[in-house]
Amino acid sequence: MVRFGAVRDEDVTAVPAVFFRQRDMLGKAHRGSREAGGAFTLVELLVAISIIALLLAVLLPSLSSARARAQQTTCAARLRQWGVAFGVYEIDNRGFWPHCDGLDREDPDPSNPDRVPPGAPPWVVANWHGWMDKVPPVLGYKAWRYYGPYEHPGADTFYQCPTAEAIAGKGIYTYKPEKIGFFSYAMNACLELDEATWRPPGGVDWPMPSFLGAARIVCPQRVVLLFDQLLDPRRGFGGETQYRSAGRYAGSYPIAFAARHAHGREKLGGNLLYCDGHVGWRATVWKDSWGPWDVEHQQGPPRDDPNWYPYPVYGAGR
After folding, report:
1. Measured distance CA(240)–CA(130) in Å, rounded
2. Which helix (DSSP H) or strand (DSSP E) does residue 251 occupy?
3. What is the pLDDT of residues 15-57, one digit of tens each?
4. Which of 292, 290, 267, 270 is nearest to 279 (CA)?
5. Where are the domains of the chain?
6. Does the model's pTM come out above 0.85?
7. What is the pLDDT of residues 52-90, one digit of tens each?
8. Of 72, 87, 137, 316, whose CB has the highest number of CB atoms within 10 Å?
9. DSSP state letters, 132-147
């Protein structure tokens, strides 16, 4: 007897088959919808790219500014290190500092750079006692003259500003910076224009080097000792004309001052080491009272300027 609601034998196998087929179809549809949802559409990709580009546009200037500030800080720290070295040198040399210029003004014998030509006049002898050769050994660094061709220190060293870089290309400079090196820091060459600055009381051999009597500087906190020097010939003389000897000499005048560091929100400027050892930043060192940038002013500012001459009260020849 068949009771109400009873399932026949043939239905026992038919129901599961239909059920499983429907379950498989639903599972495939569910997996398909998940797989389709896991991929990005073109619109979503474009939106993501736009967001990334916007973030880069916001962050890159900040990163660039932070890098520039770090370079300016490193440059100032290196100048302070030079200040310490000059101070130690002063103690070791009876209160005198070395000469502003060096062998970059001469043509020394590469096999014996220490040899001074016999009978050389005092102003030539002085170049064998330049600051880039005499001061670095105080801190355990090698004198500039002992570096061979293509071996001179670069921007990653104590000798240079961290932003120092010569312009690549032929005919840009009057010299080959990649071969003989360049100077991104220059000593204030006005220090040698005053006769009392570099002439030692007993002649050039008493003792050498004995040029600048540091203790006699009238206002050491105002007088510039070292400064950021121009390396880009295209920005010579305040951008007025080319200066193809940019970076060639270890001693230079304020007309070779380089503005390559930002300071806060200020425009570009440069670092200066003063004779008392502190470091400052200036947008420019040129004063309107000196007149326009021209060849007439290449030899420095007026002799009574207290920022560039060690003994402005006396002056040369007074």
Report:
1. 30
2. strand 251-252
3. 555 444 555 554 555 555 445 556 778 888 888 888 888 887 7
4. 270
5. 10-37, 76-297
6. no
7. 888 877 766 666 667 777 888 899 999 999 999 999 999
8. 72
9. HHHSGGGGTPPPGGG-
